[in-house]
Amino acid sequence: MLALEWSRALVSTIPGAVVPALLIGGLGLGLVAWGWSPERLGLGTSKLGWRVIGGFGLAAVLLLPAAARAAAVPLLPGGLMAAAVAVSIGEEIAFRGTLFAALEELGGAPLAVIGTTLAWTAAHALSHPAEFLPAVAAAGLLLAIWRMTFRDLVAPIVAHTIADLAL
């Protein structure tokens, strides 16, 4: 997963390659979950409406710092918007879906929360400025705690997608 994220970040530095890199990277990250049951990944359908609402709540928390410093959020161009959605979903499925489930089986929920937070932060080391990495880690920790507490990946997917579209 880290190699895929870092490759995506490096390819994104090539002029005109951002959208394809994000789309292909998101798809590749989503494929990491191949063979895992939706329920084990936190993608079951019970109480789906509440889980989506939870995602909007999580997104509000993730966006509070940005809301405090910006008056208006610019809209992304269509291609970049689709790419942001693809990579958000792929990252959540890979990190807080598959990796979380694997680490939880290996050493329990605390290992899954800490391990996915560290891996997700490391995955963003090449695509984000160093001063932004503590915010990435905080967001990852919040989403991992949600995943652990509610056994849910839908809300983190919704929150991550909204945050990426707004930032």
Structure description:
This protein has 167 residues and is an all-alpha fold. It has one domain (2-166). It is built from 8 helices and no strands. The protein has helices spanning 2-11, 18-31, 38-41, 48-69, 78-107, 109-123, 133-150, 154-166. The longest helix has 30 residues, at 78-107. The radius of gyration is 15 Å and the shape is globular. The mean pLDDT is 93.
Supply database-style keywords.
167 residues; 75% helix; globular
Please outline the helices and strands.
Layout lengths: L1 H10 L6 H14 L6 H4 L6 H22 L8 H30 L1 H15 L9 H18 L3 H13 L1
Helix pairs in contact: 1-2, 1-6, 2-5, 4-8, 5-6, 5-8, 6-7
The strand count comes to 0
Order of helices and strands: HHHHHHHH
Q: How many domains?
A: 1
Measured as a percent range, the helix fraction is over 70%
Proportion of residues in β-strands: under 5%
Kindly report how far apart the N and C termini lie.
23 Å
Residue windows where pLDDT falls under 50 for at least 5 positions: none
Task: Count the DSSP helices.
Answer: 8
Q: Could you report the average pLDDT, rounded to the nearest whole number?
A: 93
Shape: globular
Radius of gyration: 15 Å
The biggest beta sheet reads: none
Structural class: mainly alpha
Quick recap of the structure?
With 167 residues, this protein is an all-alpha fold. The chain is built from eight helices and no strands.
